[in-house]
Amino acid sequence: MDMASNSTQNSPQVVAVGFSQSTDPATAVIEAASQFNISNICFVLAFIPDCLDPAAVATSLNEHLSLTLVFGCTTAGQITSRGYDDGALLLIAFPRDHFRCSSALIKPLKRVSIEQVAMNAKNLSSRFHSTANWSRIAITFADGLSKQEDVLVAALEAGLDDIPIFGGSAGHGLAFDETFILHGGEIHANAALLILLETDLVFSGLGFDHFLPTDKRMVVTRAVPEERLVLEINGSPAALEYARLTGHDVADLSPKVFAENPVLVRNHNAWHVRAIQQVAAENGLSFLSAIDDGLLLTLGRGKKILETLDSGLTPADTYGIPPDFILGFDCFLRRLEIEQNDIVPEASEILRKHKVLGFNTYGEQHRGVHVNQTFVGIAFFAPEKGARL
Q1: For the chain, what is the HEC assignment?
Q2: In the chain, N or C: fewer CB atoms in 10 Å?
Q3: Does the pLDDT at position 6 exceed 60?
């Protein structure tokens, strides 16, 4: 039995955390759930590693947390109290003292109806009774292979008006074969989850990457937008042109190359990553975000990822007090770059210092936009004092 030792040092005051690296689903649930008191819990977030059968995890959660709402998804890695973790079932328990929630399952996700999703989100919000002096935030988890997250988050933003939306796309290690959402005690494919959260805590949204644009430009000259597939860039086969611009051979293109040489799109004064998933048939490129004919892409170059990680995770309330914990959705490509540069211990120390809990995603949702190769999160502050940021 390899049960995580969950030190109380630098632990959040507000939420309770349990995790286990057992390879047996039932044992993992028992070990993780035993690390916190299940009484007075509003809901639990469960992030499932690729080494565990998600259906078996759901069955065990139903047995051991039968009176508790449990939401979650499969992941491409976990962020526990130890930092980056592999093979860890992570449970985060949110207490009733500071949280209320309502949820909706969106299924089937592909193809998503903008009108229906927006209407359902609006109805969910209107039926969810407001608590005086409490604020709302929306969290979404989506099938990371659905290719629908761009439309989904735009529809949710339309339905929820001024409620900020943050979330991550479910993953399955680096397999890119299937991803699942956990809701209502069951595992769902081709689905998304909306959690409408109400809290009396101060919170602040986070979203950052570590890239700057270069002078290397690309125009998508042939694409299949519904498949997020680019066939030609600058009039040439997409993979060949990307390889030329990055100084690689097509045979050498890999997640490592994609992580270190992202393509960016400009939205007003902001740059967003459009991450490449893999080389497709006939030297095409499969992307993890929306893509279309005529889109102007710019090759990016990286800044120091550890420095941007530390600075990006340092919000403070108006009294200068750091967050009690950060719920984080971190792209798997960021973690891959960190692993390839042998700086996992340093990155994990930064995550521990800032009390980040969450998972590695196939994509991130940040205030109505689906992005890639980005850290997105919500910083929650302890209730002693503070003001909305």
Answers
A1: CCECCCCCCCCCCCCEEEEECCCCHHHHHHHHHCCCCCCCEEEEEEEECCCCCHHHHHHHHHHHCCCCEEEEEECCCEEECCEEECCCEEEEEEECCCEEEEEEEECCCCCCCHHHHHHHHHHHHHHCCCCCCCEEEEEEEECCCCCCHHHHHHHHHHHHCCCCEEEEECCECECCCCCCEEECCEEECCCEEEEEEEECCCEEEEEECCEEEEEEEEEEEEEEHHHCEEEEECCEEHHHHHHHHHCCCHHHCCHHHHHHCCEEEEECCEEEEECEEEEEHHHEEEECCCCCCCCEEEEEEECCHHHHHHHHCCCCCCCCCCCCEEEEEEEHHHHHHHHHCCCHHHHHHHHHHCCEEEEEECCEEECCEEEECCEEEEEECCCCCCCCC
A2: N
A3: no
Residue 194: how many other CB atoms lie within 10 Å: 27
Q: What average pLDDT does this structure show over 190-200?
A: 98
Q: What is the pLDDT of residue 386?
A: 42
Query: What residue spans define the domains of the chain?
Result: 16-208+306-380, 211-302
Six token digits for residue 82: 């130890």
- The pLDDT confidence band at residue 3, using thresholds 50, 70 and 90, is very low
pLDDT reported for residue 9: 56
Residues 159-176 have a mean pLDDT of 96
- Note the pLDDT of residue 318: 63
pLDDT of 51 higher than 70: yes
225 pLDDT more than 90: yes
Residue 374 has pLDDT above 60, yes or no: yes
Token pair of 69 as six digits: 């709402």
Which of these, 198, 361, 368, lies nearest to 270 by C-alpha position?
A: 368
Name residue 93's beta-bridge partners. 16, 44
pLDDT at 286: 96
| 1 pLDDT more than 70 | no
Amino acid at position 287, single letter? F
Which residue, among 68, 110, 73, 111, has the nearest Cα to 89 in the 3D structure?
Answer: 73
Q: Is beta strand 165-169 parallel, antiparallel or unpaired with respect to 229-233?
A: unpaired
